[in-house]
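Lesson 9: reading folded outputs for more than one chain in a single document. The general rule is that every protein is listed as its sequence immediately followed by its structure tokens, and records are never interleaved. Here is the first one.
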Amino acid sequence: MTKMNNLSCGASVSKMGWALVSAGSREQRFWACIVGLLMVATVATEATAERSLERGAYLVNAVMACGNCHTPMGPDGPIETEALSGRLVEKNPGFTAYASNITPAGPSGSWSDAELKTAIREGLRPDGSIIGPPMPYEAYRGISDADLDAIVAYLRSIPAVENDVPASTYAIPLPAAYGDPMVSVAAPEGTDATATGKYLAHNLGHCIECHSPPSQRGPDVWERPGEGGFIFTGPWGTSVSSNITPEALRRYSDGELANMIRNGVRPDGTKMLPPMPYYAYRNMKEEDLSAILRWLRVQD
């Protein structure tokens, strides 16, 4: 039998609330110690999974606002009983785009986790076909591995909603891929608020995708990022995305910007139009919104 320090093992486990056998054979104490350590490991694993689900829910429902495209809309906004079950998102001369049903009842419910991650970050379905606009793959390719794990875990946990969504059709050419296959993406350093703000606003929130002027390739995130001018039509009429470059935002205080992002109200009291998902952004954490504002002030 392998020798081990029964006292230190028993003491470390008892701190977690379990009493190990303090008497008996050396073998009994050994196996009691092993069982205790396995119980500690199980609790730690469950806690990690719970944190991942919470992170995924927060990203999907607040920062990324996936429901803004994937949830059917009624006169008063998203229909919560049909959350993330898909809808018609955009119809223009170039394409008719339907956001897919991403609940477990939709096509992705039968995909593996790896296949779903590839679809989210790289825009490729398991059959190799490309997912077209308006999914913001220029931004989503920067989603970190840990956050992608959390997003997929959350999508697996939500209620299945039956909704047969038609396939999107495109009159414009689509690329074979949006870039080279992704291997691994690290999250920004937590101590760098500006880098965190960029990650939240650009890669997760895809603000630049909507707030860049149109071009033949879609929003011009390459030459004129953040300059605004993209036109959106819907039940609200027509709205035009604002210029969110540092120069344009200089006239607003952080408090005014935060109120516009969260509540859709300008400093003069006028209301801003959709499709910006104010209902989702008002659930962002204070530190995350602060990081976003910090990056918006200095973005290059």
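And here is the second record, again sequence then tokens.
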Amino acid sequence: MKRLMLIFLLGTWCPAFAHGAMTPVAGPIKLTCAARNLEVSVTMAVWARDVTICAEAIQAGFAEIDRIENVFSTYRQGSVINQLNQFAAIKPITVSEEVIELLQWAGQISEKTRGAYDITIAAFKWQYGFGQGDYRVPNFLRLDQIKPVVNYKYIVLDQKAKKVMFKRLGVQIDPGDLLINYALNRVRMILKKHKVQAARVDMGGNIAVIGRRPDNRPWKVAIQNPRDSKRILVKIPWIKGKILQAGDYQRYFIRKGRRYHPILDSRTGAPQNHSMSAVLLLPEDPKIDLPASVLMQVPPKEALGLTGTIPHSECLIVDRERKIWLSPGWKKIVKDLDPGGGFSL
């Protein structure tokens, strides 16, 4: 993670890159800061009655993201996840209630998707070099050898004693996109405590909002064409909650014409090929809170069905045949869809 730079503004401190924007505007004061955490670009824009509230809110938000990364990063030495991956198959590891709850959350999603989502898929990810910056096509015989240790049911949680143990040697966990979702929830809660009038937090294209835009228009998010980064597939308006995105174009490499990305099949270790991308709208307190990548780990029809079990949620799926699937609510409001490039509804 690149360390945040601290920029002094009107007597307050705000974490940002040196070229991050911090712009007061008419009406409520707006402050925007950017950094890189959890392996993604993070931008916070907040509106409040004065710049001090804005700066303190953003500072607290970035501090929370940094704290979460220290605890849950798979790749950071000394993190709780790193310790679990090293020692939990040997002996029970004492953790915080927060860690127990996140692992329970991951298990609930696994149960809901019948194992399509599996936090123990980290053992497969290492073979591709994801998170290490050294991408490679794995030896598929090695993937076969790893299969027996990829199973979320091998995570044993003792909530009363606050201990975690893995049933088998070789089990590895990676919260992945679930951690982005968790960080969005935490930052939104912190910004609310600072009594900002409105806010928009973007973590690698996963966006949470507070309140309405100061101009009273709906928030909008531009959804990228998964095969042309210069084209926008659709702009989606929404009022509140979270817009979550996942795609095989976000982090990938190509070898001999084949695309490799970290949304992997938990049964085989191969990249999922049901879909190119997925977008999920969730309300502020969803019945099931899950990352958009989960919708790529099941066939599109099943993804629509899963979304339908969450009241007030919507989704858009682009499948491998370039067909666009829309949930019923978005069929009514998504009007400016510009598929192009061979995409079709």
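What the second record shows: The longest strand covers residues 228-238.
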